[in-house]
Amino acid sequence: MSTAAVKAADITPRTLPEIVLATVARSPHGVAARVKRDGEWISLAWNELEDMARRYAAGLIALGVEPGDRVAIIGNTTIEWALSELGIHMAAATSVPIYQSNLPHEVEHCIKDSGAVMAFAENDVQLSKFEEIRERTPALRQLIVMNGKGEGDRVIDLDALASMGDELLRKTPSAVDDRIAVIDPEQAACFLYTSGTTGLPKGVVLTHATWAFEADALEKLGIVFEDDEEIIFLPLAHSFAQVLKTAWLKLGHAMAFAESVEKLADNAGEVRPTMMAAVPRVFEKAFNKVIAGGMEAPGIKGKLFAWAMEHFDRYAEARKDGRQYGGAGFVLANRLVFSKVGNKLSERFGGRIRFFVSGGAPLSPRIAFFFDLVGLKILEGYGLTETAAATCVNRPDKNKIGTVGPPVPGMELKIAEDGEILIRGGGVMKCYHEQPEATKEVLDEDGWFHSGDVGEIDSDGYLKITDRKKDIIVTAGGKNIAPQNIENQLKTHPLISQVVVHGDKRKFLSALITLDPESLARWAADKGIGADKEALTQTPEVRSAIQKAVDDLNATLPSYETIKKFKILPREFTQEGGELTPTIKIKRKVVEKRHKDILDSFYE
User: Fold this and answer.
1) How far is the C-alpha of 65 from the C-alpha of 80, rounded, in Å?
2) Distance separating alpha carbons of residues 408 and 418, to the nearest angstrom
3) What is the CB neighbour count within 10 angstroms for residue 354?
4) What are 380's strand-pairing partners?
5) One fold for 3-183+222-274 and 280-351+353-470
6) What are 111-152's pLDDT values in tens digits?
7) Is 572 helix (H, G, I), strand (E, B) or coil?
8) CA of 184: how far to CAs of 91, 181, 192, 509, in Å?
9) What is the DSSP secondary structure assignment for residue 362, as one 8-state letter?
10) Which of 22, 67, 82, 502 could share a disulfide with 92, CB 3.0–4.6 Å?
11) What is the pLDDT averaged over residues 360-366?
12) Average pLDDT, the chain
């Protein structure tokens, strides 16, 4: 064990490297990570993780990285990604995570804005983005490929970086410890770039003190323990994944790195995690798959499932209104259908899940009620990039569906006169990088961050998000409408993938709707309808099915919130098409501008 690791046991960790060293000192041989190699899961101990990160840090120092330098990372969520970033921090540098799905011009913006001097790239695909922007980013002097082989002086691989680190540590054994010692907790640990729904992404400056605060707050919650096992797949360029990583480094539980989003369920079945965090889209897809499979089952099974779902709809409505729902029919539906669905879902994820965490976007209460009914708890939380993600979260012993829970320890909330949620505490960002005016717009003199979200706080201190302030629709009749609530309810239909509700300054609401290709293909096959995916979206049968979904929703809404007209688009919105951010949020203005003719036609 290193001298630094021994000392770490006697200090209060104030920086990310100190947090790791304290965990290593406490449990040097405990399982830190699990990764799949050649079809087998292997484990890394905490001391092994520290040693590898130290070698990378020393390699960066040998390459000329100075304290405070910015080093970018782009790629999928892997152990190499996590170790590389930890190496950056141990070298007293600042990490600049970039989404793996970012296009070259978006990568260019992050590199130029941050002033990054080096970058880690996952593979040749990611390296090619840097090569495309090479002439426009002359300050970027070194590339390091995490999974692949180096190609000369400009591009080296992780083995070469580690060898350079070994050589430096032989000559100067204290090189990394010296760097860790000079890190000021108020120094930037990372620049996380906003999703850019309304303009160029801004670099959110989050300090070591910010992450130390988040780590302490999550430890005080007392809901994650050292013997837990988590599986991670969310992109580490997202604040949600970053706070999960920080909690892991602090609390010392095992973290399994999923091979990919597509293999998430299979991987979970193999490593049998006790907890997992995901964005709502993951739960939406799981819910829709269950519903589609049940409703399409032949004969008595399909009829039984449809009957049980009628009970569920009444149950969910009662829960939303704070009422109890029961009766012999509901008890029978639970025993014959929902208990079996719950067992099947639980086994799919390994059979040990204590709870899921949902964040990054609003989760439909109907989906949360369904998971809760079948015995799987989803704790919805809330935060922004500017608040290091973990601002609020529900608790396992008091999970109030429809809210995002109370604040984590040390964070404060209040509601402004116009309904905007204001946030203050150690998790709030330092500033937007080199954008003082933009910082002043959201961070006031008293330290309150103006979130741009609208919400309310109940008598238990639980926060309910009603919408984004900038997304509120004000109809021609003066009615204020939160589109996300309507969109989320529609998305619980198995065929519906994405929804954009439109109607600002219009006489009524309309919607643009996209369909889930997999669900649509299964539905069409069951109906005996043959057509390619895009043509299928425009068939009368599909139109009729979506019309029924809209009508069913409209029946539960006041007249001014009902959708009077809609259009089914032939394909889903994508990041490549410019309609989605890297965090899968819809760029409303882009979508509305692109489909202006359709929207205008609704009101002619």
Assistant:
1) 19
2) 24
3) 16
4) 358
5) yes
6) 999 999 999 999 999 999 999 999 999 999 999 999 999 888
7) coil
8) 13, 8, 19, 52
9) P
10) 67
11) 90
12) 93
Q: Where are the beta strands (DSSP E) in 363-441?
A: 378-382, 392-393, 411-415, 420-425, 431-432
| pTM flag (> 0.85) | yes
- Please tell me the predicted confidence (pLDDT) of residue 448: 97
Distance CA 309, CA 291 (A): 9
Looking at the domain covering 472-602, what would its CATH class be?
alpha beta
Tokens 């001391």 correspond to what residue?
47
Distances (CA, A) of 297 to 291, 319, 404, 494, 529: 10, 28, 35, 14, 17
Domain ranges of the chain: 3-183+222-274, 280-351+353-470, 472-602
Give the torsion sign (CA, 275, 279, 285, 290). Answer: positive
Band of pLDDT at residue 11, cut at 50, 70 and 90: low
What secondary structure does DSSP assign to 162-203, as a single string? HHHHHHHHHH-TTHHHHHHHT--TTSEEEEEE---SSSS--E
- Checking 400-404 for CB contacts under 8 A at 24+ apart, the result is 400/458, 400/460, 400/462, 401/319, 401/365, 401/368, 401/369, 401/372, 402/320, 402/365, 402/368, 402/464, 403/458, 403/462, 403/463, 403/464, 404/380, 404/462, 404/463, 404/464, 404/465
The class that CATH gives domain 3-183+222-274 is: alpha beta
**280-351+353-470, CATH topology level:** Rossmann fold (3.40.50)
So what's the pLDDT on residue 249?
A: 98
Q: Is the pLDDT of residue 58 over 70?
A: yes
What is the pLDDT at residue 475? 87
Cα distances from 63 to residues 203, 336, 588, in angstroms, run: 25, 64, 43
For the chain, the residue count is 604
Q: Which residues pair with 464 in a beta bridge?
A: 456
Residue of 463, 360, 390, 354 whose CA lies nearest to 218: 390
CA–CA distance, 493 with 511 (Å, rounded to integer): 15
Give the separation between CA 3 and CA 15, rounded to whole angstroms: 17
**Strand order from edge to edge, sheet including 563-568:** 496-502, 509-515, 563-568
Structure tokens that stand for 118 in this block: 């080096």
- Strand extents, DSSP E, 458-538: 463-468, 473-474, 480-481, 496-502, 509-515
Residue 156 has pLDDT above 50, yes or no: yes
Q: Which among 5, 16, 201 is positioned nearest to 90, based on CA atoms?
A: 16
Cβ atoms of residues 440 and 448 within 8 Å: no
The tokens of 103 are what?
A: 């296009």
**pLDDT of amino acid 196:** 65
